[in-house]
Specification:
The complex is a heterodimer of chains A (about 230) and B (about 230). Chain A is of the alpha+beta class and about 230 residues long. Chain A folds into 2 domains: about 10-135, Alpha-D-Glucose-1,6-Bisphosphate, subunit A, domain 3 (Alpha-D-Glucose-1,6-Bisphosphate, Chain A, domain 3, 3-Layer(aba) Sandwich), CATH 3.40.120; about 140-225, Alpha-D-phosphohexomutase, C-terminal domain (TATA-Binding Protein), CATH 3.30.310.50. Chain A has 7 helices and 11 strands. Chain A has helices at about 35-45, 60-65, 80-90, 110-125, 130-135, 155-160, 205-225, and strands at about 10-15, 20-25, 50-55, 70-75, 95, 100, 140-150, 170, 175-180, 185-190, 195-205. In chain A, the strands form 3 sheets. In chain A, strands 7-11-10-9-8 form a 5-stranded antiparallel β-sheet, covered by helices on one side. The N and C termini of chain A lie far apart (about 40 Å). Chain B has about 230 residues and is of the alpha/beta class. The longest helix of chain B is centred in the N-terminal third of the chain and has 19 residues, at about 40-60. β1 of chain A pairs parallel with β10 of chain B, so a sheet runs across the interface.
């Protein structure tokens, strides 16, 4: 539709307008993970400060924050946790990789309307097309998976055993188990509402992200005694 | 593999998995219709709203607190919203009803009106049979985990009393969309002049909900041409 109408961009929000995603002029997705990255780049350019998101959000925010000479912190998943981390670190901008932009100058809550106004300001000042802006950011591709578990499996025990899976990785246990590598990461989290473990990974290409997630999924399945 | 004394974890999971009323610290969500306590029925809405109101009244040490309420466009929205507003009034709380609104708009409205709390009725991206109550403190921010646990406890114990006839709360309507937009335009980093000058053409998809109204209004205020609005 964006392409057909020769529009500069498309804007997509969720039903209660706390999450935001963009579509590029060629009809491709800007990527909801990159909503916060682009908005943060703009905010940091004008008002340098710290940033925060959650452990399952793109590493591109960390990279952009470091580029501006500031520090980034990753909180446990959940808006309340991100807001707390932002207050603790006096972050100037933060949010979630699901398109949730939190700009304390306005208020401590995900706000798609604030996100739209800041993003359009950025696009207007930088004078790039959407695709060119997207290409100016570090490339990380996500792989989002889940492992369905059988009844009677102790997830915490499995996650505990999984901790040692990658001896060379940096391990973060704030929320499930997250392994950070120089060029990617993989995060295992149990769901509180369903019998599943979410396995999110991010790497420089879809193949590498899928491969990293796949490696973890088969190891966890082995630990859980799932043969399929 | 491992069992809690006498209770397989799988059993607990199966219970959780099949339950359609999920009480968590960030609020309560459930499906519309069916039996009380297994779903988000009118009785559950009233009970949970009463408990949250009692929690706020205790925190503020007064009965006549003020609560801002708003909802997204889902089918059950008006029904649940009317229940919430009437329950708050019955508890003695004054209600500022924003009607069809957005989560961030309610968040901004709470401190603007110096209200003591906010309730947003939305199940976000969940299918149409779902709805939920999201609870805000006096700053317009989500209540903490400890506060959420206390609200659940009050609801379970039905630890709340309703106001007598001389102390029922009032109900008034506000839109607040324009005030929220004005507040955004007043942010120093929002460069409305540059945006208007860029002459953007934009397609909007608000998934048939509040965004279909609020986003075009914001864009108009920013001087952006709306190419197509899916609502």
């Amino acid at each position: 539709m964006v392409k057909e109408k020769k529009a500069n961009l498309g804007i997509v929000v969720d039903p209660d307008v706390d999450r935001l995603a963009f579509v590029c002029e060629d009809g491709s997705m800007f990527g909801e993970e990159y909503t916060l990255v682009a908005v943060s780049d703009y905010v940091l350019k004008h008002t340098p400060g710290n940033t925060a998101s959650n452990l399952s959000s793109t590493r591109a925010l960390r990279d952009v924050t470091v580029k501006h000479g500031q520090s980034y912190v990753a909180a446990a998943v959940g808006e309340v946790n991100v807001v707390k981390a932002m207050k603790d670190t006096k972050a100037i901008i933060g949010g979630e990789g699901n398109g949730g932009v939190i700009y304390p100058e306005s208020h401590y809550g995900r706000d798609a309307l604030v996100g739209i106004a800041l993003f359009l300001s950025h696009l207007a000042e930088i004078k790039l097309t959407m695709t060119a802006l997207r290409d100016s950011y570090p490339v990380y591709v996500a792989s989002k998976n889940k492992i369905e578990l059988h009844d009677g499996i102790d997830v915490d025990a499995i996650l505990n055993e999984a901790k040692g899976m990658f001896p060379d990785a940096e391990v973060n246990l704030v929320d499930g188990v997250k392994f950070d590598f120089p060029d990617g990461w993989v995060h295992l989290r149990k769901s509180n509402t369903e019998p599943i473990i979410r396995v999110y990974a991010e790497h420089s290409s879809k193949e590498k992200a899928d491969a990293l997630a796949g490696q973890v999924i088969s190891s966890v399945k082995k630990l859980a005694g799932i043969t399929a | 593999m491992s069992f809690v004394v006498g209770l397989p974890i799988g059993y607990v999971w199966r219970k959780l998995y099949t339950l359609t009323l999920i009480k968590s610290i960030s609020g309560i969500r459930g499906t519309i219709g069916g039996n009380t306590s297994d779903n988000l029925t009118p009785l559950d809405v009233v009970k949970f709203t009463s408990a949250f109101c009692a929690f706020i009244q205790k925190k503020q040490n007064k009965r006549d607190v003020t609560v801002v309420t708003g909802r997204d466009a889902r089918i059950s929205g008006p029904m649940v919203h009317d229940l919430v507003n009437a329950t708050l009034s019955g508890m003695g709380a004054h209600v500022i009803n924003l009607g069809l609104s957005t989560t961030p708009t309610v968040e901004v409205a709470v401190p603007h009106f110096s209200a003591n709390a906010g309730i947003i009725l939305t199940a976000s991206h969940n299918p149409k049979q779902w709805n939920a109550l999201k609870l805000l403190n006096e700053a317009g921010e989500f209540i903490s985990g400890d506060e959420g646990a206390e609200v659940l406890r009050l609801a379970d114990a039905e630890e709340f009393t309703f106001a007598d006839v001389d102390h029922l709360g009032s109900l008034r309507h506000e839109t607040f969309m324009q005030q929220h937009i004005d507040q955004i335009l007043a942010l120093p980093l929002v460069n409305a002049a540059a945006i208007a000058h860029a002459n953007f053409s934009v397609v909007v998809d608000g998934v048939n909900s509040s965004g279909g109204v609020f986003v075009p209004a914001l864009l108009e205020a920013l001087g952006v041409k709306l190419s197509t609005n899916f609502l």
